Amino acid sequence: MRITFSDDGAQMSRNTNFVILTVALLDNKNDAMAAKGNHTLAVVKASENYEVLKEACGNVFRKINSLNRVKRFKVGEKTINLELFFGGDYKFLLTVMGVQNATCNRSCVWCKMPRQNRWDISYNLSHYNNEPLKRTLHEMMKMAGKGKNNYCCVNQPLIEIHLDHIIVDELHLLLRVVDVLIDNLIKDVLEWDKREDLRRIETKSEGFISTS
Ligand SMILES: [Zn+2]
User: Fold this and answer.
1) CA-to-CA distance for 209 and 141, rounded, in angstroms?
2) How far is the centre of ligand 1, averaged over its atoms, from the C-alpha of 111 (Å)?
3) CB within 5 A of ion ligand 1: which residues?
4) Cα(32) to centroid(ligand 1), Å
5) Other CB atoms closer than 10 Å to residue 133's CB: what's the count?
6) Residues 160-180: what's their mean pLDDT?
7) Which residues neighbour 113 within 8 Å (Cβ) at sequence distance 6 or greater?
8) How do 166-168 and 83-88 pair as beta strands?
9) How many angstroms separate the CA atoms of 41 and 24, rounded?
10) Which one of 29, 47, 56, 74 is CB 3.0 to 4.6 Å from 17, fit for a cystine?
11) How far apart are CA 198 and CA 186, in angstroms?
12) What is the pLDDT of residues 77-130, one digit of tens each?
């Protein structure tokens, strides 16, 4: 049985944030994407930061980690095998996996590509998914204890699920990309309006000069 744990942050007012941790059965295809298939595990009134999540959701995370280690649980006489996934928006995944932040030198959860080479799209996926660039959970846990040369692993991962089962929420990525594109479009439109207005004023004043 495949199970996914997810998080979402929700801003209720200007200074009230909630973190909501949910669980869903991926094999329950009809409901997995619907509200009725996603069950709330924890609601925390706080902003998404490492210390708060560690303190407030520590028990839930520990339970998820121990389930992931044994990969099975019993219901009566029946043993159910488990495959666990963990998802969320990118900021939440960075926080939970102990990576510094989205603007640090090695800000990818899955690989150690440094900032200065991030523009280079000439490599294929296997370049990032193999040594020496690929991150592993084991390495992240080891690096978190080091003060420097830690590839931006500043905290112990709170979730101990292997990285190929850590899934970023595509909807959040898409919404943010669209937000930035729309923002750029609006700025361009305002700029065109400004230029048009200036041109109109110029033509008017030229007209005024020529008729006087
Ligand atoms: Zn990467």
Assistant:
1) 75
2) 4
3) 108, 110-111, 128
4) 27
5) 18
6) 91
7) 106, 128, 133
8) parallel
9) 10
10) 47
11) 18
12) 999 999 999 999 898 999 999 999 989 999 999 999 999 998 998 999 999 999
Q: Is pLDDT larger for residue 145 or for residue 68?
A: 68
DSSP 120: -
Asked whether the beta carbons of 161 and 68 are under 8 A apart, the reply is yes
Phi-psi category of 82—alpha, beta or left, where left has phi over 0 and alpha has psi -120 to 50?
A: beta
Lookup: tokens for 115 = 């900032």
DSSP 8-state code for residue 212: -
How far is ligand 1, taken at its centre, from the CA of residue 15, in Å? 33
Q: Is 151 left (phi over 0), alpha (psi -120 to 50) or beta?
A: left
> For tokens 């099975």, what's the residue?
72
pTM of the model: 0.79
| Tokens describing residue 73 | 């649980």
- Whether the pLDDT of residue 166 is over 70: the answer is yes
